[in-house]
Amino acid sequence: MGRKWNNIKYKKAEKDKNTSRIYAKFGVEIYVAAKKGDPDPETNQALKFVIERAKTYNVPKHVIERAIDKAKGGADEQYDELRYEGFGPNGSMVIVDALTNNVNRTASDVRAAFGKNGGNLGVSGSVSYMFDSTAVFAFDGKTPDEVLEILMEADIDVRDIFEEDGSVVVYAEPDQFHAVQEALKAAGIEEFNVAELTMLPQSEVKLDAEAQEQFEKLIDVLEDLDDVQRVYHNVDLDSEA
To answer: What angle separates helix 19-36 from helix 45-56, to the nearest 10 degrees?
Structure first.
């Protein structure tokens, strides 16, 4: 399980390289969630989740509030939720989630990113069957045994709890995200290093140095696309084959 957590840490370490782009992407995601339902996060679970996730990326309060106010103000921008699945160098697998107001532009950009960086797009379902949708939390200040006791008292079953690099990591079913988070908050956990709904690979692959360099470029290009919200993959980025 640890290597999967390493890939999440890699994503978190990269998150500050272009904060303005990250803020803009969260602005769109928050706007879409607020537009779909009530703009109050206390009654809109999807909006509440996005805001909680934004906080782990240190998105400023004014960015969050501006996106919600835009939805309240009757703005009528239409966004489509899209998922692309493809292959990187040496058969590595990639899932790309996007929010876009121009489907043709996004499809062209994603296809070009794969094609120019040693990959190719697959059909729907060609990759996702090798991943599991998972709620992931990481935080400091507790031991795995303490967290297990907290969740057992709240009558919550989780997939796994382990410690790595001083943080406790919890894997849970996606529909348990809010229950797990609320139980942890009630136990005094104030800040989360990670609070995500993610796609975890069932197994990981290692690439040689040349292929890994090309793969990391592919991921960087995809994540830099304005319409791309999240990128998941099955490559162990902590070590080279």
So the answer is: 170
